[in-house]
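Lab meeting, item 3. Inverse folding demo.
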């Protein structure tokens, strides 16, 4: 049986960038509009406020900062954040991004965020290719996969409060 190891559709390498720590780089040329990465069952988790606060309560400040800078929210799913557990978590920010979420059309039936099963519904919805990362342009082998967080991410208010609590600067999203 062919087991999927991560959400990447093309070969890639993880390596140090010149200015942002680790990054993910294409090993082959990729055409504009191609799906580059998608969510894979078991390789991401959706958290509401209480579910996110539980694990960070026992972490060091350094571990909390790492978690906060490796989760994200999406506008279609208010009041939750997503943590990816494959190298897709290493997509760095750039205003000249090579990837964008494939959600060009709004959800026909928005999820009920007051439902007790909301995070389960979000978890299931993320498997739709509308939440896959697609190439915004042709990507050359050796080029870093990047995303414009300012266009893509919408963190819930509870997340912003945690950022403030730990005095984390997210100004890099608006500057590059």
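The presenter then showed the designed sequence:
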């Amino acid at each position: 049986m062919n087991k999927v190891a991560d959400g990447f559709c093309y070969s890639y390498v993880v390596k140090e960038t010149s200015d942002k720590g680790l990054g993910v780089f294409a090993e082959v040329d990729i055409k504009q509009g191609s799906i580059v990465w998608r969510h894979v069952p078991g390789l991401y988790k959706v958290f509401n406020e209480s579910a996110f606060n539980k694990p960070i309560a026992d972490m060091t400040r350094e571990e909390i900062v790492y978690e906060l800078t490796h989760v994200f929210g999406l506008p279609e799913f208010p009041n939750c954040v997503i943590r990816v557990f494959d190298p897709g978590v290493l997509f760095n920010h750039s205003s000249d991004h090579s990837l964008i979420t494939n959600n060009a059309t709004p959800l026909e039936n928005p999820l009920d965020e007051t439902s007790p099963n909301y995070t389960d519904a979000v978890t299931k919805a993320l498997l739709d290719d509308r939440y896959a990362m697609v190439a915004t342009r042709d990507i050359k082998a050796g080029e870093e996969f990047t995303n414009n967080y300012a266009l893509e991410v919408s963190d819930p208010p509870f997340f912003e409060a945690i950022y403030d609590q730990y005095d984390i600067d997210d100004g890099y999203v608006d500057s590059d």
